[in-house]
Design a protein that fits this description.
ABC transporter transmembrane region fold, four-stranded antiparallel sheet, alpha/beta, 20 helices, about 575 residues
Length: about 575
């Protein structure tokens, strides 16, 4: 429809010089005022029709490009959220944000204005040059001689613009990343008095971004003067040669007037051609960047192995000779690890930093897929469970707490389906996690808005909100990855006491550096360099006098020293 509207609009506008030619030629024959009014009416009507359909062009093609932009952004967003965790470890937030903003907008400019003006330019050129040839082929030939040179210069400049724009987008990604890191780490910046240093670094990146833009603008600045120069030369040719032909009465004065107007009409298509070439080059650079993201594989997903009849499980977890490493060229984090966790039991995992504790629990909800062996739940490989079902039945409190810029209530009930949300569920999760007492002190209670990443809460409060969020989903498997590190020991003891009744019937995994947190677990494993080196309950491990016993005695000594001071 948009292309049809372009054709109608162009035809209406292109008839204006023809009416003008007839009006000027009629002056020789002594045209009446009614005749002039007639031609004026035709010109006005053509202008109105052209204007109406020009509006409809934008209502179709430009609106469609906006809708495509919306679809592209939604596709990009859905694809990004399905990518594995390691993708986000290898790509900065700022870089991804640049793709979602600048690059998609550049592609939209191609799908809208570039397509519209390309078709518009093609139709105008075809019709106008056809009419000009019908007036006088030789004069048309002289007029069009400069245009091939224009196309050649446009081609050369567009290639340079493509390269420049690619570099600009790369630098914009760096700039966005730097800004995001500074906003996210503002407390660290202020604590270490690094404001001036960060300002200088940002200024340096901004200057590089500015210079790259200036390099592109200098090339773009050649477009307009070049276009007006070449079209100006064409008009001079028309007046010089066409004027001589009028004197010799080879063409009429109306013909030469129409010729000049048609040349004026060609100026914008020629200018639009250069602008379109610029947009195409920018869109090409942006699309290549977007395709790199879209080409990233959704590695962790439902496969032919998935059994969609599996909608629930009891929670018996078994690791069979599991080996895992984050990258092919890196050493194994876990090696030939075998472990069974009965339903309704509590497993505690302890070990030094880097032993593989967090990696172990990240494999259960398939945040990563293992390299060797298999992980079973109720005797079925985790890959057989639909990913949605698997993760919905697991309550996970990660080591790094993340809260959304929303109310405390919405953060706690984040994982609960809307139809199942209730205040009773909220209050119970808050009670168990010892969050309720703190919330009662806030003026807005559970409607209190949290700053970005929960900046308005203390570290311990953040961890308790995160714990409440995991409890609210009523999971079959509860995983606590060092979830009490920022909580004081008295609050921790109360939380663990509250959790005992909640944990009954569920499979629980607790990772901690504190022996006091894990000593009541049914089974405790000690990880060292990705392997289980000790296993048993608290008494059995103390009797072994190994890593666990050593950690226990050291922590007892620390507590005694605190009491003495």
């Amino acid at each position: 429809m948009g292309f049809a509207f372009i054709l109608i609009s162009d035809i209406a506008q292109i008839t204006v010089p023809l009416f003008l030619r007839s009006a000027i030629d009629s002056l020789k024959t002594g045209i009446s005022s009614q005749g002039l009014l007639y031609y004026s009416g035709l010109i006005l009507l053509a202008a109105i029709v052209g204007g109406i359909f020009r509006f409809l062009i934008r209502e179709t093609i430009i609106v469609t490009s906006r809708e495509i932009e919306y679809d592209l952004r939604q596709d990009f967003w859905q694809h990004i959220l399905k990518l594995p965790v390691k993708f986000f470890q290898n790509n900065s937030t700022g870089n991804i944000m640049a793709h979602a903003t600048n690059d998609i907008s550049a592609v939209r400019m191609y799908l809208g204005p570039a397509v519209m003006y390309s078709v518009d330019t093609t139709i105008r050129f075809a019709i106008i040059i056809g009419i000009m040839i019908s007036i006088d082929p030789l004069l048309t030939l002289y007029t069009l001689i400069p245009l091939p040179f224009l196309s050649f210069f446009v081609y050369l400049l567009s290639k340079k613009i493509h390269k420049k724009f690619t570099k600009i987008q790369e630098k914009f990604s760096e700039l966005t990343t730097k800004a995001q890191e500074n906003f996210g780490g503002i407390r660290v910046i202020k604590s270490f008095v690094r404001e001036e240093s960060e300002i200088e670094e940002f200024k340096k990146l901004s200057n590089e971004y500015l210079h790259r833009n200036m390099d592109k603008i200098k090339i773009q600045a050649l477009f307009m003067p070049l276009l007006f120069l070449i079209t100006g030369i064409s008009i001079i040719v028309v007046i010089w040669i066409g004027g001589g032909m009028v004197i010799k009465e080879q063409i009429t004065l109306g013909d030469i007037a129409a010729f000049v107007v048609y040349l004026g009409m060609l100026i914008w298509p020629v200018i639009a051609l250069g602008w379109v070439m610029n947009i195409i080059q920018q869109a090409s650079a942006s699309m290549k960047r977007l395709l790199r993201i879209f080409s990233e594989k959704e590695e962790i997903k439902d496969t032919s192995q998935t059994d969609y009849s599996l909608t629930d499980f009891n929670g018996v977890i078994e690791f069979k000779n599991v080996s895992f490493k984050y990258k092919p060229n890196l050493p194994y984090i876990l090696k030939n690890l075998s472990l069974k966790i009965p339903q309704g039991s509590t497993l505690a995992v302890i070990g030094h930093t880097g032993a593989g504790k967090s990696t172990l629990v990240n494999l259960i909800p398939r945040l990563y897929d293992i390299d060797e062996g298999e992980i079973l739940i109720d005797g079925r490989n985790v890959k057989e469970y639909p990913l949605k079902t698997l993760r919905e039945k697991i309550g996970f409190v990660p080591q790094e707490t993340f809260l959304f810029s929303d109310t405390i209530k919405n953060n706690v009930l984040y994982g609960v389906k809307p139809e199942k949300r209730s205040d009773d569920l909220l209050f119970e999760a808050a009670r168990i996690s010892q969050l309720d007492k703190d919330v009662e002190l806030f003026p807005e209670k559970y409607q209190t808005m949290l700053g970005e990443r929960g900046v308005t809460l203390s570290g311990g409060q953040k961890q308790r909100v995160s714990l409440a969020r995991a409890l609210a989903v009523n999971p079959k498997i509860l995983i606590l990855d060092d979830s009490f590190s920022a909580v004081d020991t008295n609050t921790e003891e109360q939380i663990l006491k509250n959790l005992r009744s909640f944990m009954k019937g569920r499979t629980n995994i607790i990772i901690s550096h504190r022996i006091s947190t894990v000593k009541d677990a049914d089974n405790i494993i000690v990880l060292h360099k990705g392997k289980i080196v000790e296993q048993g309950n608290h008494r059995e491990l103390i009797a072994l006098k190994g890593i666990y016993a050593d950690l226990h005695y050291k922590q007892l000594l620390e507590e005694e020293l605190k009491e003495l001071t």
